[in-house]
Amino acid sequence: MKVAVSGFKGRMGHEVVKTILKEEGLELIAVLDHKPKEKNICEIAEFSTVDVPVYSDLATMLEESKPDCVVDFTTPKVGYNNTKTIIEHGVRAVVGTTGFQAEQIAELRKMAEAKKIGAVIAPNFAVGAVLMMQFAQKAAKYFPNVEIIELHHDNKLDAPSGTAVKTAEMMAEVRDYVKQGAEEEVELIEGARGGEFEGMRIHSVRLPGLVAHQEVIFGAEGQGLTLRHDSYDRVSFMSGVALAVRKTKELETLIYGLENILD
């Protein structure tokens, strides 16, 4: 498969480039950055032996390089428009950019189905994180009192994380609604109780040194249950990215969430 990477200078995009270069059956043919200094990726010391053009415009890259699939790890500000442009050009998409609204995902799914091409949008590509989300969904049926604490590096632009939102959405599917906390609870500092989703609370931590971590904490009378996943290195996401790229060949729709393509 001929693969292009959008957002290749970001930390996730950088790992994706390295992964595509070493994965059997995948060929890196183009990369994209919004303000590149390079014309070819070989101008970067780490990739000095690689001959791959660098683009600054997504449509131009799609038209000239003609990839089979584009992997997009950019920013929430441009993620939706990028995905729309990729699908409009009849190209498969694997998207790790977060911040999509439900109506945007629905619209992109209709576009993918009209073009009969596969696409995968996933808030998290680490298999361990996906399992944590599935375990949380199972537990929420029996433990409706639950809070999420997600912890990321201090350069992350969106809060809460896409993983936290997806986890909450999955739990809401099976969880009896419970508005948590005392009925007359008062926040002495605004935001101290975190954001609310279907009665659940989500807390976002941003600190240097972190990568991507999440705890789902359940409480019940006389007992508690804590689920936690830690990504210590961005390489933890790469097996899921490679899996998604290959999976798009078999799809004619858009899939939201890596858990939906795991065997």
UniProtKB/TrEMBL annotation:
InterPro entries linked: DapB_C, DapB_N, DapB_N_CS, DHDPR_bac, NAD(P)-bd_dom_sf
UniProt main location, coarse: cytoplasm
Record domain Dihydrodipicolinate reductase C-terminal: where: 128-262
Cell inner membrane keyword on record: no
Record-listed NADP(+) binding positions: K35
Keyword line: Amino-acid biosynthesis, Cytoplasm, Diaminopimelate biosynthesis, Lysine biosynthesis, NAD, NADP, Oxidoreductase
UniProt entry tagged with the keyword NADP: yes
Entry similarity comment: Belongs to the DapB family.
Function field: Catalyzes the conversion of 4-hydroxy-tetrahydrodipicolinate (HTPA) to tetrahydrodipicolinate.
Protein name, entry field: 4-hydroxy-tetrahydrodipicolinate reductase
Source species: Listeria immobilis
Gene: dapB
